[in-house]
Structures are given as structure tokens and as C-alpha cells.
Design goal:
This protein is α+β, with helices and mostly antiparallel strands and 287 residues long. The protein has 2 domains: 17-202, Alpha-Beta Complex (tt1808, chain A); 204-287. The protein contains 6 helices and 12 strands. The N and C termini lie far apart (163 Å).
């Protein structure tokens, strides 16, 4: 009889695949929910030189695969549960062609997929963990590619599953870049940054994209300010023209009134003159 699976709080591990297959759907759901998404001392404190390349790598990959329309889940520091294995949390990892949703943990039997690609960033501590133990572990788990950035020395290494299973072979760089067959991208260190390349195009990282967006926003805001100023100037000129036209119309109306008054007085004077001439003629006729 198979022993019933129980969670060991001090060493949380997913059940074996045989135990998983023997469980009902509800039992599996309870197991997944019981596996911790956080645990004490799982994530050591990290500084900017570890945090920044991790976040930039994740955001760069998420943005790239979203743009090309591929469903690739990219995570970082997420607890990974392979059957019966000790839990681990890679700096950055990718699983190709899976459902995109928020996750608190990755349980391989539940997802029906293991990891395809892992990036670890080494800055301080035990080199053996990243440079030896992880190379053995990730190969044994069948993770197709493992990239390792030595942040202090600004060096990149890459490993890929060999033709014989559960063994890694080193990826040979070409012109300083390492090709990832999983991602369909190349990786390299440029200056003090880890960069991703699609063909000859260097993918912008999160910081650069934010800077570009801010510059675009500033340019757009500048153009809008110019347009608003031009519109205000045009409105002011139109108002001044309308005011001058109103003044001209008022003067024209006054001139017309004066002309009408002059014409009236001329008619009255002509009538008075005619009457005076008629009176003179009448008086002469009586002499």
C-alpha cells in the first residue's frame, strides 16, 4: 500500500509522480495549495546589482514574447516543485507555450510541464551552488538550457542538454553572444548589462524602455504645448481682427449716419432755397 503523502514544513517537497497519479482532483488541488509559496530564509537579501538584471531580464522577455504573440510564462523567484525534489526558486525562468496567468508556485505535475530555460545571477556567496550543483540539478531535471551570469566579473556561461539525457554541454559563444535555442534569442554582456538580441536588434531592457517612453511623452507634451500656444495665438489674433472689424463697422455706421444727416440738411437747404427764389420771383412780379 502506498504511503499517504504529507507535507514536511521544514523541507517542503511535492509528492512523487506515482503518489500524484493516485490522488483525486480535489486531493491534488489541496496538495498544490498546501505547498508554500514563501518560506523563511528562502530568498536572501539582495542589492541592486542582483535585483536589476533579474528584473530587466524578466520584463524584457515578457515584453518580447507578448509582442511576437507567443504564450511564454516568464517568472522570477517563484518556488518550483519537481516531484520529491527540494524546492528551489530560480532568479528567472521561462516555460514555453503555456497558459499565461498569475501563479504563486510552479508544481510540475500540476502544470504538466517542467521548466524550459533558467537564468541565475551570481554575485556573492557560494560559487559551487550556481556553477556546480545547479549545473547537475538542472540537467538531471531535464531543464533544456541554463544560463549563468557572473555579475561581479561580467561573464556569461550557458549550458544545454546534450544528446545523452540528463547531461549538460557548454554552449559555445559566437562573437561574444550565446544562442538560446529555447528562447530563439541571443544573450551577451554589453558594458555592465546582460542584453538580449533578436537577430541584429538589441532588445531594450525595462529601464531603457521607461526612459524612451518618458522621452516620447516629453516630446508629445512639448508638441501639445506648442499646438496650444499656436491655437491661443490664433484665437487672440482672430479676436483682435474681430474687434478691429467691429470698430470698422462702427465707424462705417457713423459715417453712413453723418452722410444721411448731410443729405437731409442738403435737401432742406435746397427746399429753403427754392422757396426763397419763388418768393423773390413773386415779389418782383408785383413791382
Amino acid at each position: 500500500m502506498t504511503q499517504r503523502w504529507t507535507l514536511q514544513p521544514d523541507d517542503p517537497r511535492a509528492p512523487s509522480s506515482d503518489e500524484w497519479q493516485a490522488m483525486s482532483v480535489d486531493e491534488r488541488a489541496r496538495v498544490v495549495d498546501s505547498l508554500p509559496s514563501e518560506w523563511e530564509d528562502a530568498l536572501p537579501p539582495e542589492g541592486d546589482r542582483h535585483w536589476n538584471p533579474k528584473v530587466n531580464a524578466r520584463k524584457t522577455l515578457e515584453r518580447f514574447f507578448s509582442r511576437v504573440g507567443r504564450r511564454v510564462y516568464v517568472g522570477s523567484e517563484l518556488p518550483i516543485y519537481y516531484p520529491t525534489e527540494r524546492v528551489f526558486a530560480p532568479d528567472v525562468f521561462a516555460v514555453m507555450d503555456v497558459e499565461l496567468r498569475e501563479r504563486d508556485r510552479w508544481v510540475v505535475d500540476d502544470e504538466k510541464r517542467g521548466l524550459d530555460w533558467v537564468l541565475e545571477i551570481f554575485l556573492a556567496g557560494s560559487r559551487r551552488k550556481d556553477f556546480e550543483r545547479n549545473v547537475e540539478l538542472y540537467a538531471r531535471l531535464g531543464i533544456h538550457e541554463y544560463f549563468l551570469l557572473d555579475r561581479g566579473n561580467l561573464r556569461l556561461q550557458a549550458f544545454r542538454l546534450a544528446s545523452s539525457p540528463r547531461m549538460y554541454e557548454r554552449v559555445v559563444p559566437q562573437a561574444g553572444r550565446y544562442r538560446s535555442a529555447v528562447l530563439g534569442l541571443e544573450l551577451g554582456v554589453v558594458g555592465d548589462r546582460l542584453r538580449f538580441f533578436s537577430g541584429d536588434a538589441e532588445l531594450p531592457d525595462a529601464e531603457e524602455l521607461i526612459e524612451r517612453l518618458e522621452q516620447n511623452v516629453a516630446r508629445i507634451e512639448g508638441r501639445l504645448d506648442d499646438e496650444v500656444r499656436r491655437a491661443e495665438d490664433a484665437e487672440q489674433r482672430a479676436s483682435q481682427e474681430a474687434q478691429r472689424a467691429s470698430q470698422e463697422a462702427q465707424r462705417a455706421s457713423q459715417e453712413a449716419q453723418r452722410a444721411d444727416e448731410a443729405e437731409r440738411r442738403a435737401r432742406e437747404d435746397a427746399q429753403s432755397l427754392a422757396e426763397a427764389l419763388a418768393e423773390i420771383q413773386r415779389l418782383k412780379s408785383k413791382l
